[in-house]
Each structure stands twice: as structure tokens, then as C-alpha cells.
Amino acid sequence: MAFATNISGWLDWQTISFAAAGISVMGAAMLIILSRALNLRNLEQTAKVEFVYAASTVFIVLMVIGLLYVGENAIVAVVRCLYFNSFGIDCTTCSFTPMVGNIPATTLIDYTKLYMETPARCVQDTLHTLYIASIPIESAASVYMEVFMSEQATGYGVKAIAERIKNTTQMLSFYLYIYYVLLHSLNFVKHYAGFFFAIGVALRAFPPTRGAGAYLMAASIGFYFIFPFGYVLIANISLPEAQEGVLTPVGGCQAAIEKGSPYYLCSLPALPFNEEQFRNNPASFSKIIGEIPLIIKSSYDQIVNLLDFRTGYIGKLFKRVFASICLAPLAAAILMLTFILNTTNLFGGNIPEIGRGLVKLI
Q: Closest Cα partner for 351 from 49, 24, 21?
């Protein structure tokens, strides 16, 4: 079930929310009865205000449950079609549900992870290619000799290529690290957003912590619903242009079923050497080291196509990765924080502020 932990029974977020709201309603009602019995008018007025707060909490919990059970399913269906269309697949004829690992994608967070997963896999393939390319290039760059017993000459002039590979590897590793940070953060939100929402409902029942509870409720909805929705919306605007020339859709619905989800082919340029040349044949490796200048010269176009930041593969990949790992999450976070700011009063149940909070939300 969406917006829930893996804990069932009385620890489920809906049970906790209803219990907290029900207890606050009962407590306010008992306080009204007690104040009337003791003829305490001021206490009765305060108890009536608290009763209104408690009743509004019940309404908010029901609204959130309805949003998750009805609204999320409808939006997920739309997001699924948008995701399939980016691969050239007709979502109406392909009844397949993409997989996130071994779990079917059923929430907005799942589709957010799918959008980020494609460039991350491409980065991993690129890092592997750079590792293979760095073996002969770093070996050649480390050669040392003396010219006329005085001047030094090193690396056959390929030191610049070795430095470019090292810099590219560091930048791609940074993006991959950010991807895993976002991935684990989304997994945490997916499983524990409901728990924090229930804690917010409980805090909202007490006047001293009412503001904190309202903020926690708004933040839970924002992180679980608004952030992934904003990400998907922005991804569909920015990513198709950024992925041009780098990722190619492969197959159709049948290929998606076989692979577990639709996928792209990373258009990596072919290199004239591979890992097996260096791993299984030391003699061949020594021969390759001696022929490094010729190999690099003959594959100059492929190396430039791989490492050129302007028109080459790496430049296009950086645009794709930046859009999916940095730009889209940043814009989605701004949208989410705006939502939290404008709905805190609404979730707080401050009666005079509900109207103004709703206007701000709209």
C-alpha cells in the first residue's frame, strides 16, 4: 500500500492517525462536559476550540487517505503513459508494469527512481569504458625517458588524455554518488512518510506542538507526493532534449517485458582495445604498450568522440545526467518547499488561517 511502512496492524500509519485524532476528539468532548459540570465558562470556550481542532484533524486524515487511494492511482496511470511514451511505447497496448528492482512500479516515487536509473546505468557503463581506456593510456603516460641525456620526455604525449580521463571519472563519480543519495532518500520517504504523517497528527492534538505537527504533516505530503510529481513533470520537459544523441530507446513492449522495464542503449563509441587483452595475455599487453602511440593515433577520433565536452559523448551525457540528477530534483524541491510553506497553516487547523492558506495553495 502506498504511503505506508512495511509494518501492518496497529502500527499502520492510518491506525495511528485515526487513534490520535479520535483521542483528541474524545479528550476535547470530555473537557467540555467537565467544564459545564463545574460551570467553568472560560474552560468551556477553550474546550470547544480544541474540539474544532480535533474534528478538523479527522477531516484532514480522511482527505489524505482519499488523495492517496484515488488521486495517486490516477496520477500514476498518467505518469506511466508519459514514461512509456519516452521510449516510443504505446501505453494503451502495452499492459506491462515497469519494475524497480524486483518490485513493480506503483507509486510516483517508483517512477522517479526509474527516470533517474537510466542515466545512472549509462554513467556506470561509461566509467567501465573509461577504466578500460585508462589501462593503456595511463601506462603510456607513465613512461619516462631522457632525450640527449638532459631533457625529459614522458608519456608519448598522451598525458593530456590521461588527465582528461581522470577528471571525467571524478565528475561522473560525483553524479553517481548524488544519484545513490537521492535513491536511498526516496526509499526512506516511500516507506516512512506515513509514519511521520501520523506523528504530525499526534503532535497537532496538543496546543504547544500544533505548529510542529502541522509542518510535519505538510512535509510528509510534500516529500511523498509533491516532490516526485514535480520531478516527473520537469523530467518530461527537459530530459528528451538532453538525451539526444546519447541514449537510444531499444525494442518495444516485448523488449520491456524481457528486461523488466523499458531501457535505453548508451551510444558509447567503440574502442580498439578491450579488457581481455590486458587481463589474459601479458605478452600481448607488452606488445600493446610498445604500440601505444600507433593505437592512440589510429583511435584518435573515437577518443575525441568519447571525451569531447562540446559535441562528444561525454558532453551530451553530462547534460543528461545534470538534468536528471541535479536540475530536475532542484526544481522539484523548490516546488515541494513552496507547497509545504503554503499548506502548513492549512494542516495546522488554525481556523482564521484556513481560508488564507487555501487561497495560497490554489
A: 49
Residue pair 328/251 in contact (Cβ under 8 Å)? The answer is: no
Report yes or no on 47 lying in a domain: yes
What global pTM score does this model have? 0.76
Range of the domain at 338: 13-361
Compute and round to an integer the Cα radius of gyration of the chain: 29
pLDDT in tens, 350-362: 544 444 444 554 4
- Sequence-ordered list of residues with C-beta below 8 angstroms from that of 181, at least 6 positions apart, any chain: none
8 A C-beta contact, residue 172 and residue 131: no
- Residue 192 maps to a domain: yes
Residue 8 lies in a domain: no
Find the mean pLDDT for residues 250-271.
80
328-348 and 351-361 helices, crossing angle to 10°: 150
Q: At 145, phi and psi to the nearest 5?
A: -150, 165
Q: How many domains in the chain?
A: 1
129 strand-pairing partners: none
